Amino acid sequence: xxxxxxxxxxxxxxxxxxxxxxxxxxxxxxxxxxxxxxxxxxxxxxxxxxxxxxxxxxxx
Length: 60
Hints:
- This is DUF4044 domain-containing protein.
- The chain crosses the membrane at residues 34-56.
- This protein has 60 residues and is an all-alpha fold.
- The chain has helices at residues 2-16, 30-57.
- It is 72% helix and 0% strand.
- The radius of gyration is 28 Å and the shape is rod-shaped.
């Protein structure tokens, strides 16, 4: 009798336990997309800025 009650409690705890969240790709969220686009535009902007500055200073 006691064993049956103990096993029932264990199975109930497993069923009611919250599910763990798995890894989610950052590009699937709005903030992840925002960060990726900021990085991309920042890199492209720095390349263009450095080229313009090189032209101005006569190093190109």
